[in-house]
Specification:
Blueprint: H1 5-20, E1 23-27, H2 34-50, E2 53-59, E3 75-78, H3 81-86, E4 101-105, H4 116-121, E5 127-132, E6 143-146, H5 153-163, H6 170-183, H7 194-205, H8 210-217, H9 223-234, E7 237-239, E8 244-249, H10 251-255, H11 265-273, E9 281-288, E10 292-298, H12 306-312, E11 316-317, E12 321-327, E13 330-333, E14 336-339
Parallel strand pairs: 1-2, 1-4, 2-3, 4-5, 5-6, 8-9
Antiparallel strand pairs: 7-8, 9-10, 10-12, 11-12, 13-14
Helix pairs in contact: 1-5, 2-6, 5-6, 6-7, 6-8, 9-11
The structure holds manganese (II) ion.
Manganese (II) ion binds next to loops.
Length: about 350
């Protein structure tokens, strides 16, 4: 990405805001993925170097597989956040009014931060900066740094650091490389760019540990997770009319193997199912507790944009990887299933 003057000006402004701020809130999206956690950790590293007071927040359960990243122990993960919210008992683990700067990283949409109401209100005049590579969704940012052409938010952070001549520490290098690797499926997804590969190799020179990242993000599946994978593979079918593959898991099927809720079992399944040759894409639909259905869409086909289907179903994401959530339950009868 060649940085145009307008983007460079935004990066400089963002750093000015950070330097002036007294208390900074960092937030990312629920069910945080590698890029989300890595982006948080990279900015935590920067803020600690500057001696800035800060809090990092992620709604939802902690994702254990990223605990190898520096500073993850400082992130406040809020368990049961959404159920508390719907029952009206939501209580934030901090006083939102104390912050003068809020930085959202990799969020996709404000609703995924768990802080949508507070951020929209900005009742105490907080300045809101957004770094994201998802498509635009709303007009809530005071400073919006959005680059859908970047493979990861971590890639955007790299340009931000460069524009401001900020030293890339070994910690930051590990974070940026993790974000790029996880969001490109270790450079396998079609969105992978030459720039992302160049940045990754530069991160190795700054001390990022590639084998350690891959070991933690790829070779990390437990036996229950593998069993659930097996079931998802077994249930995989192709809809010949649309040349689209799908696999459906009911809650009862999943619970038979009691996978650890803190393990990212399902994202990796949809990624693996998309290895199927010759189809336009794949849908992985699973039933969750509380009458929710989660759908993941993946495609490796150059002409297919699965985010259009995800958007129609109230979700979102990228052309090659998207998701949605619906209310309902899955009923299976022999080889057939329906949503009730
Ligand atoms: Mn991302």
């Amino acid at each position: 990405m060649d940085l145009d003057a307008a983007t460079t000006a935004k990066f400089l402004e963002a750093f000015q805001k950070i330097k002036k701020a007294e208390n900074i809130l960092l937030v990312t999206h629920e069910r945080a993925d590698g890029d989300a956690v890595a982006s948080l950790c990279a900015i935590i590293d920067l803020l600690e170097g500057l001696g800035k007071k800060h809090t990092a927040f992620c709604p939802g359960e902690p994702i254990n597989q990223f605990s190898f990243l520096p500073h993850t122990e400082k992130i406040i993960f809020k368990d049961n956040y959404h159920s508390l919210k719907s029952s009206g008992q939501r209580k934030l683990p901090f006083d939102f009014r104390e912050f003068d700067l809020i930085i959202a990283l990799d969020c996709g949409s404000l609703d995924r931060t768990g802080l949508a109401e507070e951020i929209r209100e900005k009742s105490f005049n907080q300045f809101f900066v957004e770094f994201d590579h998802h498509l635009k969704n709303g007009n809530h940012s005071d400073l919006e740094i959005r680059k859908p052409e970047a493979v990861a938010t971590s890639e955007i952070l790299y340009y931000f650091l460069k524009a401001n001549k900020i030293k890339i520490t070994k910690n930051i290098a590990n974070c940026v490389l993790t974000g790029i690797l996880t969001d490109t499926g270790n450079f396998l997804y079609s969105a992978t760019s030459q720039k992302a590969i160049n940045i990754a190799s530069e991160m190795l020179l700054y001390g990022a540990r590639f084998p350690r990242i891959v070991r933690n993000t790829l070779y990390n599946k437990s036996l229950p997770a593998m069993k659930v994978w097996g079931l998802a593979l077994n249930n995989l079918k192709i809809n010949k009319k649309y040349n689209f593959a799908f696999s459906v898991l009911t809650l009862a099927e999943i619970e038979k193997f009691s996978p650890d809720e803190n393990e990212d079992v399902f994202d990796s399944i949809s990624g693996f199912l998309s290895n199927l040759y010759g189809v336009k894409g794949v849908l992985f639909l699973r039933e969750e507790k509380g009458g929710k259905l989660k759908g993941s869409l993946r495609s490796a086909h150059p002409q297919v944009d699965v985010s259009r289907l995800a958007n129609k179903l109230g979700g979102g994401g990228h052309a090659k990887a998207s998701g949605f959530v619906l209310g309902g339950k899955i009923e299976k009868e022999g080889n057939n299933w329906k949503i009730i």
